[in-house]
What does this fold into?
Amino acid sequence: MSANTDPCAPLLARAEALLEDLHLGTVSAWKAANPGSLAIGIMPVFAPRPLFEAIGVLPVNIYGGGDRVDVIKGDAYYQSYICHIPRSTIEMGLGGHLDALDGMVFPSTCDVIRNLSGMWRMLFPQKYSSYLDLPQTFEAPLGGLFYRHELNRIAAELAERGAKPLTEDNLRVAIANENERRGLLADLAALRAKEPWRVKASEAYLLTRAGAVLPCVEHTAMLRDFLAQAHVRPTRPYDNVRVIVLGAFCEQPPLGLIRTLERSGCDLIDDDFQLGLTTIEGNIPLDEDLGDTSPLDARSPLDAVVLSYTMRGQATATRYIAEQVKGKALVDRVRSLNAEGVILAAPSFCDPALLDQPMIEQALADAQIPFTSFKYAENSAQFQTIREQAGAFSDSVKLWGAA
Ligand code: SF4
It folds into this structure.
């Protein structure tokens, strides 16, 4: 299908332009259109975007510089044996790429992000900087209250810098908007899993990633427009293997790497790129009966945001999973999506992803699900080896049902 005949091409081109806009021109334009409003960068993996939107703040997901920022100064701040995203993020900060932002929030994803938050505070003392400590115990009286305190703290600190005060009415609107977006992201995922030739992984990636810089309502409109066109775009199935990609975490693979996997005989029917948007399973539960949630009250929109995290968090390595078997959720996902194999693709030196990987591999082996593994960096440029590995994997699954 050529770009000329594909009705989805203009939307995809816009989404790709947003990804490539390392100077956050869209954010600057939003601020110009909303004088006095704040834009706050959020490092991966997860922070509750409706909280920011409810107080008139544009939350901007920061995924580092990818493969288009030369890291020179950023390397001076980190030892060589950690992942790449903190270096390129520092480089972007020092190089003025993030000047449109009024501050940054650093969720407690890993030690690297924690250290980055400290460096940020020292390097940019004039900007807002906050470490968001996400709870790892999920009972309402413990982790729930703690998390609510964290969210109230951030809302109050941003109000001191010019954001609107947090009100129940505004938060309800923001949650409703977010749930609508989540519904469309779920529709996109369902269409891609059913007809992966209709929505390629790289396209789903671009469309989802556009939400990193767009206000929720604008991103929702983009998703709706795309879905309307995707259902009727001229395309055809390929004889590919149905594969899930897992382990991406916060440092994102280059778009070229995703496209390389697509060209290696794999239909990537699901992934955990941009994990933060799917950290919560389903909707944020507005006005739902969740049973006994005391001392939290599910009818309060702020408590609903809290409960969505404590009760509906996905099983990922950023979340403490006590008695459950690591990898079980993935095996269940493989079965429910009728996948034929799994590609484990983790950022080099990513502790959370790589600590879980042996247990996940064991779970896949026990379930006799074919898998293959490799590591990448956000600035990886040579994809030939990965193409050969993924191509051999898809061939072996196709021929023998095993890798
Ligand atoms: S890629 Fe992994 S180790 Fe690096 S900042 Fe992200 S979660 Fe932490």
Q: What stands out?
A: Residues 83, 85, 109-110, 112-113, 249-251, 347, 350-353 surround iron/sulfur cluster (CB under 6 Å).
